From TrEMBL:
Residues 188-236 form the PDZ domain. This is Membrane-associated protease RseP (Regulator of RpoE activity). The keyword Protease applies. It is found in: Membrane.
Amino acid sequence: MSVLLFLVGVLLIALGVFVSVVLHEFGHFIPAKLFGARIPQFFFGAGRTLWSFRRGETEFGIKAIPLMGYVQIVGMIPPRPTDPAGTVPAATTSLLGRFVEDTRQVDLEQVKPGDEDRLFYRMPVWKRVVIMLGGPLVNLVVGTALILTAVMGFGIATPTTTVAAVSECVKTGPAAQNDGAGSCAPGDPKTPALAAGIKPGDRIVAFAGARVSGWNEAQQAIRAAAGTRSPVVVERDGKEVTLEVTPIRSARPAVDALGKPVTDAAGKPVYTDVGFIGVAPVQTIQPATLGQGLDMTGENIKAVANVVLHLPQRLYQVGRVALGLEERDPNGPMSVVGVGRIGGEITADHEIPWKSKIASVIMIVGSLNIALFVFNLIPLTPLDGGNIAAALWDGLRRLWAKIRGRHAPPPFDTAKLAPLSAAVFGVFALMSVLLIFVDLVHPVSLR
């Protein structure tokens, strides 16, 4: 039964990826059609065609390698620009030059008589930007909608001021876990909460003379009172009991004003010396507000952007993991294979309620859409961000020519970016293979 449930989770993630990629391509397809572009192909995958059908002038289908999707728009690359005399310069015979011209020729072979006014490079800059931006924006909308559905419709784990557990001893630095109970070593000091007589089931209602309404508020008050003997009022068996506690100064994972963990540039937890008493809160599932849901979407975008900005460092770490030189960072980059495995573990875990399983799968697919949004905005071809950057550069060149009273320059020769596109594609392919290998050999697990 667990194997079947695991496969269900993997298939749900795979279906989510398929739908997300197809919706991304429709984000390009719809505005391109509205603006009159001709689109010969709309495919999911790469390599040999497994199945296809034709609707109008477009062939839709699925290819053998499920790595990506694409919409082929006629006229992405302009013909070779002419010199001032109106003649076409001879093509360069260098290796890169031949590669550029071969790329141009492949694109121009799609142009048919009557396409003159339907070519992508002849469209106004704003139309090209809208077409290229359409895919990532669809993923942003879908990702945001799914995250909001998960956290507002199903709820999120929310800490309360009720004490779930009291730690027996104080552990510091990376050994410190979320203020919960753990095994103690000889010489570890007793926690202030245990010394003060706080018990599981107590509800903290006031600390240092101030009433607290939530766990984050109580946690901030405790952390700010390091070394100060403070009264703590707890509700126990329907009565308020006042105790005395002195938070010990300890290196704990830093949190922001909303109680969210703070991480460094490498995505690792940041530790700070704060007051600590050694209690863990009871967690309840509560529907999030719209503001909380949007905050979580924003945090998701920031997390993916952080991975992109530090991608070389992250890949170096993954390479060390592949060689067995370093432990896997659970917050590091992960391939679709790893994400699918996590989805399978969630659906196969009998301790997780079905409501939480559904919410988790929805959240994962939503996060994948956010990742598609951020990665496709990288200003490098063949990603959408590279084509957006090329269109904007074209617009700036035309504006500068207009300001100087000169004729508009020919369209920016995007064929010259073909070597860069090939290099970027190669890097992402190698990155994907490396991540898949690590996800198979050193997978991130829920436990």
